[in-house]
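User: Run a structure prediction on this.
Assistant: Running it now.
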Amino acid sequence: MKSKFISLSLLAGAVMLTFTSCGDKKNKKEEPAAPVQQEVAKPEPVLSYIPAVALYNPGALYKPDKDDDGLMVWNQSVNCGTRLEAYSYSDKGVEMKTAVRIVNKEKQERQFVHVRYNGDDYWIQDVTVALKAKPGVITSDEVFLYKEADIKSMTNTSLPFGTIIAVSDEGGDSKFACVSVDTEKETFHDVFVKKECIGGDTDLTILSLAAAIEKSKNEVLRSELADALSKFNSPSDLVNERKNEVLDKMKVFDSYIPEEYNPLMPGVYAQDSMTDDDGWDLEENY
């Protein structure tokens, strides 16, 4: 009897343990699985182009040397005021790098800005370019530079009529524009000029055409340039005076050098073996 009683007790205990274990499993809350951390892909840098202006005349555009890493080699020149596009990436801004150029067989370390010109890639020294800017021109006589957009900050440095500058898109106010300019003695960045003294694209075109007419020795080209120049007008009296001065000279020149003297080269006298001391053809002109 005793052994049967012990067996029944053990059986009852096992049943109770089983029910208890089942109850614990039902009452125990299941813990949520830890979230799987997914790696977030970094966005690809976005390339954009910032407007820029060459400040030097001539300005040098460089390309990396194919055989010597870190060396910049002059590739071509651009005029002061030439529009460029600076490479800028969303993760690091304007693309720049330190490289070496060679001047008089000496290596000089400089900072270069990556730019695009006429659809091709170049590098330009940072001091010779203005970023986030557009070309402009001084349309008044003796315009002074200011350290700040404040009349009290005027400097002793003045810019003559016709000076090409780079006008920044930022930093100015209703009266002053933030500019960069090279005076051949010194290069200035982030200085200020009165807006009323600055001309834009039309003024630049007029002054460029006038300069090209005076430099050209080809009368056909001079005539074509003069015809183009006559179609522009500026809000600046000085710019218009410059235009009219050049056109008046062209009229005087054309009045005493008729084209019939040399049909092969209009506006230029033909010369023969019989000439006077000034080189004029004695036989045809007198």
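DSSP finds five helices and 16 strands in the chain.
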